[in-house]
Every structure is written in C-alpha cells, then in structure tokens.
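Quick question, first post here. What does this chain look like in 3D?
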Amino acid sequence: MILKCPVHTETGGKMEFIKIDRENDIAVITLCKGKVHEISEPAVDQIHNAFKEFEKDHNIRGILLTGEGKFFSFGLDIPGFLEYRKAMFARFLSKFTNLYRYLFTYPKPILAALNGHTIAGGCMIANACDYRMMVSGNARISLNEITFGSTVFAGATAMLKYLIGGRNAEKMFLTGKMFTAEEALELGLVDRVVEVDSLMTEAMKELKDMAKHDLTAYAHVKKLLRAPVVRLMESREEMSIAEFNDIWYSEGTWDKLKEIKIKE
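> Answer (accepted):
Ran it through. Tokens below.
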C-alpha cells in the first residue's frame, strides 16, 4: 500500500504529509512534507492515524519511521504556527505530546531511521521510538529550542533523561548544540551510525530482528520498563504545555520565531 506524497499540492483538499509502504510484515512510514518535513497539525494527525492502523493490523510486526532527502524533520512548522491563535496552538501542543507519548508506549517495535537532520520536535518524535539509527556525515541531531527562546515539554524531558541520563539531557537542552551522529552515539541518543547508502537496508535488517520476538511479551516488557516515565509524563505534561504556550507567545520569543524561515 503506497500513499503518493505530493509536495505543495493538495488532493481533494487534503495534503499528504507521509508516504506509507509495506515490506512483508514491516510498515514503512516516510515523512515527506516539502524539503524539511516540518511538523504541522495535519501531519501529526496523519502520523498518529497511520500508527493506530498498524497497531490494529495483525500482519504488521514492526514500523520503520524515516524521512525523505536530507531531513528526518526540521521540527515544528514555525512559520505556519505564527498564524495560530494561542488557544489553537495549545490544541496542537496537546496533539503533538499525545503523539510522542503514544509512540513511546507503542506495543510493536518502532525503529527511527534518521536519514538526515533531526531537530527539535523531530528529535522528540525520534526519541519516542525504540531504536534510532542515524546516517554519518553532515546530518545533525538537536533539541535546540533554547536557541530561539522556546522551551520543551515535561514528556520530552522525561524521555530524554530515560535515554541518556540527567546530566547529558542538561547538556542537550541548555546548550541547544547540534550533535553529529557520532557524538549522538557517544551520548546514547542514537543506537547505531551507518553510511547513507546503507541506512534503509541496515534499518530493515535491525527491525526485522526486533520483530521476531513474541509481540505480546515485547509489549509487556516495554510497558514495564517505561511505566515510571509515562506516569511522570502524564502527571506534568498538561502544566508544561501551558507553560510552553506562554513562553511561545511571549514578546521576546515571538520576535525570534518570526525570524525563522523554512526553505522548501
């Protein structure tokens, strides 16, 4: 099953932000909006719906999430969200955080094949997956919100600390540094670094190995491991969304956001 992915065009009034394919019992979801695959509200809806469908499909044993070109994802669609009123943006933030929490607890294996730059909200989505394989070279991974006056969410913070520990999480969040794949591997942020040409082959091989396990057992062990993190996410996420929204619409941050341009 393939969804064609038009760029800057709409079909029946609805733009497609993802491309879906299947290789036997593995589903491949490819982010394909424009050049940098910025995350908009419709994109979140489409990604969430695709994962829900594959959760119900007993013939699918694992999901590979990747992007087209040189970007996995630039992060949130900042120029697009400048048109949102504060209440509308709060609605989106709730959807976005629900998406990464859903992926973090997903009962089937998810492998993020990071084909290029993985920035801010794109990094949060990648962190929610079970395994991250990233290409070497010019690609960078970062949670750089602080560099444009923004903050992060309780859930994103909890996931990052779960992956790389509290001190390393501080280094990422408080510096906004862009890490190479090799630096990210050293931090524990990614699990493996490969050459660009071998990414999809190696990612598929790794995911098929993960998907060989009994999926009921896999889901149960994953739930046990991540339950404390999820409880923390659920207890603090609503408050952090409200705080994020206030900072986003503050004068200083708003001025910096308006300077950000996305080149398609």
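The chain has ten helices and nine strands.
Residues 164 and 188 are 6 Å apart (CA to CA).
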